[in-house]
Each structure stands twice: as C-alpha cells, then as structure tokens.
Amino acid sequence: MRRRWTVRDLRRDNRSVLLWTLYFGQPCSRQDLSEATGLSPASVSNVIRELIGEGIVLEAGSVDSDGGRPRVLLRINPDYGYVIGVDVGETRVRVELFDLAMTERAKADYPLDPREHGVETIIATILAGLAAVLASSGAPPAAVLGVGVGVPGVVEQGPDVLVHGQTYGWEAVPLHRLLRAGTALPLYIDNGAKTMGQAELWFGNRRGAQHAVVCLIGSGVGASIISHGTTHRGSTSSAGEWGHTTIAAGGRPCRCGSRGCLEAYAGAEAILDRYGPPPLAADQESALAALIEAAPTTPKAAAVLADTAAYLGAGIADLINLFNPETIILGGWAGLLLGQHLLPQIRDAARRHSLKHPYAKTTIELGHLGPDAVALGAATLPIEHFLNGTTTTTTAQKNDRAS
Ligand SMILES: [Zn+2]
Predict the structure, then answer these.
(1) Average pLDDT, the chain
(2) CA–CA distance, 218 with 28 (Å, rounded to integer)
(3) How far is the CA of 265 from the centre of ligand 1 (A)?
(4) Does pLDDT of 72 surpass 50?
(5) CA triplet 335, 339, 343: central angle to 5 degrees?
(6) pLDDT at 401
(7) DSSP 3-state assignment of 5?
(8) pTM score above 0.70
C-alpha cells in the first residue's frame, strides 16, 4: 500500500534530514545545511528555529564569511538528552552513558565468568549497570532517549525481540520483555557485531565506508557486513555469523554443535583450548594476553598463535572473496590483542587465500575505537531513532517528566 504523504510528514522529514546532516557535520551554519541538504534557506531557518526553541540545537559561535555577515554556527545540544550503550559480551558486561556529543559521562563494567550466561544473571547485571550509570552521571531518567543493547547471537526483531544465542544456550530469549520488567527506559536490541559495525561506520577511522566488514573477535567470533553504507542483515537478521562458517570440514567441534567453524579455531576460548592446560590465568582476557606474552620463549604458544593467524587470515580471505570490501576492520578484545601482535601474519595468510584483484583493493586494519566499540555502537541505536524522530517515550518516562 502506498503511503499518503502529508504536510506533517514532510515537515518531520525535513527535520530529520537536517538533524542527520547537522549531527555528522557539526558545527555548521544554516547556509552549509541548505547546501548539504538541498532544502531552501527559508525551510532550513524554520526548522532550525523550531529545534532551537525545543533546546535540541544551540548556536555556538560564528565564523567570518567572505565579505558577508558572519555565519552563525549550529550544533546539537550535547545535554538535550543522553543515551546508554550496553555491551553484553561473554567475558564482561559494559554499560556506558553518553551525552549527544557521544562524550562518555558514566561507565559500569562487570566481568563475567564465561561459563555463566544464565539469562537471569545477564538481566540482573544489565539492570544494575543502568542504575549505576544513571546514579553516577546524575542524568535524569526522563532525559534518557534510550538504551541500546548489543548481544551475542542472532537478534530477531519483532513485537517480542528474541535472542537466539546458540553457542551459549540462549534459545529464543525474549530479552526486551525481560528487561522491560526492570526498567522504563526505551530499549533497542541488536547483535553486538552489528552495533560495533555501526560504531565503526559512524565514528571509526574508515567512517563512511560503503563496503566493509567489521570483525568482532572475543570468546566467539562474529562480523558485521556493510554493503552500500548499511548493515547487511539477510532475511532474518542473522547475516554476518562469520564465526560459524567452516574453515576445516569435519574439524574441531564448535560450541554451535557443528564442526570446523572458524570460531572453533580463532575465538579466544578455542585458542586457549588449543593451547591446552594448565590455564595461563583465571580469566580468558588475561590468559590470552599471557599466551601472547609467552610466545617468544614458548614454542607451543608461538605455534598456536601462528595457526591462529593462518585461520583468521583464511577466514578474512573468504570475506574478501565473497564481499569485495574496501576494508576489513578487526575489533573485539581478542581481535585487538591478536591484531597488535599478528597483523602482518594475518594479512599474509589473507593474501595467500584470496583472489589477487579483490585482495589488492582491500585494507585489513585494527579498529581505532578500542574495546568499548560494541557499547558505543549500541548507544547509536537510540541516537538513530532520535535523529529519525521515532524516539518512543515510555509511559513511566512521561509520568516522570510530568512530575
Ligand atoms: Zn560453530
């Protein structure tokens, strides 16, 4: 059915176009906005007047223009509202509160035992994190535009957001409903690799890339495939499950139930498992760091890492041959740690396993956003709704604002 456009839609659309343009171009003048959007100077002035009136946009200084009147610069008011990003990883849960300039205002970090992914534990940890960042930032809950949550596994959007985390025993977990019982804040949930992909797309060193693959390597392995500037989701949003593509038919058993998956060789849990006992440290993050540190003097550790680089490189070659990206970005706590030491070997293995032409057109680099990229990307989910004008206010928030 074709939608009938109304004057109200048009106004909302102009507003959204201007907000997106200002968000990524700030600070800029009304004239810059008119040039960038093709909207008339009068339309820009009208919408900006409305946005200034609502406290969303601020006038922030001015610049001289050649011969004419100085141009007033505009920016989004960083304190108009706040967003929260949650990274549910396998080794920790991170909760971070940002203002609209994406400056981090508060952070809570909870290490997890990788064997403990009970739904109740994760829900309780997220809710504790939300309370902690609200308390330490002093941000009023009514000013929080929303909470984005990045989780491992396949996220099925719909009236009941369901998380299918096959590798850690989450079957169709109604995460949205379970969190709703403990918070009134608007909630947006997506796969963590996809939220990290969006962080790279918005704020990374390759922001604006049209064709990229962002690889999230932690205990497990995932990816976000960016095609024509947007995240490729597939028919049920499971696209990008790179960790469960087969790297060795009939190989090592994988946590997903199959054999020979990339994750069964290149995920941190699998790397440590390939090295074997005794454990190098109590937690996975320290154990992988210890393994890397031991490599120069321990042939076994060196061999495990050399194999890891070979498997990762082969997996990356598959991405290059399948998607022809401009760039491949390695992130996630294990990806950053491995990449710092093995990037030349990973690139070399990728070169050996991919077709010459697409390999020559691809860069393989480390993400510059650090291990917080999943949480930062999760926080872009409510920002997206804010810029589109589709932020939902929950009833409890409305009551909060009225009181
Ligand atoms: Zn698997």
Answers:
(1) 93
(2) 39
(3) 10
(4) yes
(5) 140
(6) 55
(7) coil
(8) yes
In this prediction, residues 170-189 reach a mean pLDDT of 96
Q: Over the stretch 312-321, which tens digit does the pLDDT of each residue have?
A: 999 999 999 9
Sign of torsion over alpha carbons 51, 24, 84, 393:
positive
372 CA distance to ligand 1 middle (Å)? 25
How are strands ordered across the β-sheet holding 71-76?
28-29, 71-76, 57-63
- Compute the distance from residue 38 Cα to the ligand 1 centre, in Å: 48
Q: What residue type is assigned to position 65 of the chain?
A: S
3-class DSSP string for 86-130: EEECCCEEEEEEEECCCCEEEEEEEECCCCCCCHHHHHHHHHHHH
Report how far ligand 1's centroid is from the alpha carbon of 281 (Å): 25
Q: pLDDT of 342-358, one tens digit each?
A: 999 999 999 999 999 99
pLDDT band at 63 (very low <50, low <70, confident <90, very high): confident
pLDDT band at 2 (very low <50, low <70, confident <90, very high): very low
Can you say whether residue 324 is alpha, beta or left, with left for phi > 0 and alpha for psi between -120 and 50 degrees? Answer: left
Closest CA to 389 of 11, 73, 1, 97: 11
**Residues 6+ positions from 382 with CB-CB distance below 8 Å:** 83, 84, 145, 146, 147, 148, 186, 188, 391
Residue written as tokens 């006992």?
277
Query: Which residues have CB under 8 Å from 248's CB, separation 6+?
Result: 259, 260, 265
**Phi-psi region at 135: left, alpha or beta (left = phi > 0; alpha = psi -120 to 50):** alpha
